Amino acid sequence: MSKAKTTRTPDSAPDNTHLLEGYPGPAFLVARDSSILAVNERGVEMAPMLMRERSTDVVGMVKAAAVTKVIVAQSVELTLGDNKLQLEVTVIPSVGSDSFLVLVRDVTLEQNLRPALIESRQRYRDLVDISSDFAWEVGPEGEFVFVSAKNALGYATEEIIGRHPHDLVIDAAAYRPLPFISDQPVDDVELWMRRPDNSLACVAVSSRPLFDDVGLWLGARGVCRDITREREREAALMRARHREQILHYIIRAIRNEVEPQNMLTAAAAAASRALAAAGCRVFRATSSGKFQVAAEFADIGENCLFETELEKIEQTDGVFEREIGPWRALGATTNYRTTINGGVCIWKAKSLGEWAEDERLLITDVADQLGIAIEQINNHERIVRLSRTDALTGLLNRRAFYEDEMPRRLQRLARGTGKAALFYVDLDNFKQVNDEFGHNRGDEALIAARDLLLEHSRPGDLIARIGGDEFVMWLDGISTDLARNRAADLIAASAKLAQYSEGLETSLGLSTGIAIYDPKLSESLDELLARADVAMYSVKRDGKGGFEIALPPAEK
To answer: Kind and range of the H or E element at 280?
Structure first.
């Protein structure tokens, strides 16, 4: 630093001029009347401006120092054109002299920087608060010495200060190093911490180590960001995707099957495998509201009556979890357009614990898809039934009898020696009933004829309406004598049909032709029907209201 140059006034004391040497800022001596006695080089220009007209703040400070005999310090603002200087002025009374030493320090830069520094610090704090949940610092002892938030992870500040991070971090020994006491910078290390209520929080930690001048570790400081909700959302999304994958797997299993009944069997197997269950049952609801097993994977016997629980399902939210025998079952009803049409149930060993929430959600999703599949099966069966049955009587129609049922029956009989009988039944005088009384009376007569045939047949026999007033009845395992007796009973019972032709000259009745099927003769269905038809028309020619058994093919 260069030596300060000192300017003396004529009245200045030479022995006081050394006071101004070496001062880095403006310095000058003034008399009691504020006249300048001496000034250093840096104060040559400033001293007159501060003392001008003897009425500035500095003049007042000199007067105060003269009266109080103590040092007076004050901030003074000096205007220079468009600029303003901020000065720290100190007036020191000289001991044994009637002069005063005035020292000036320009603090304009400091004053201008202070708001910027304050703003910068606040900006930094705001950014820290926004970017993290709390900032922290750990001291040399490895204990928290500072926490920025008043409620970090639910803790009050005093509950964390003085504690070691190991007390809060789950499985802290697994982290090498633990971010809170790391001697290396770490960024976004995820770890689990314990909240005051013992719940867990997933926290992303970033930290920087602190060292002294010789490299000794003094601690670390950093920030923590609570990402528990993010991880929970990610976990929930992953579980949802997993459920979706399982559901798609089950749906594919259903769609890959052509036969409707196989759809439910495939769904039961797929659901059991996908949910790691011991087995699965799919039920269909009957018109009476009961549940019947429609498909099953892994049979567990008749003692586990899951259907009983399904019938109680309305008492729950649509999903039930029960201990049934040695199993823990999870089931749900299937619906289509808010109507229960079945159910699904899976089971596992009790030792495997309760079903998880994801599995409860998934069984509901599976039930929704099965509800659609069951409805499709119901519709398919309804269409098949309509295509196979006569709309008025509910009996098999001509196509179902000729194309579906009879070929199977004949093929089965061809492998054995048992006989069967084909009854070809025609209503006598039915046209007159229709013409005289109308089609409603005719329909009633047809239904009455159907009832007669049902009364004189067995559960395994086939009955079909193949024309307007023509019926056929197939009886398996029946001999010629039994067929004759059955026909005689049928003709006798047909007398009750006369009530539908009351008032007419001719009565409503039955004419029946019977052909006995013998597998040894290798007779075709057309040939069999032709023989029965010939026998029936023979009865018609002989006066109607009777039956005739056609001769075997070899005896014609």
So the answer is: strand 279-285
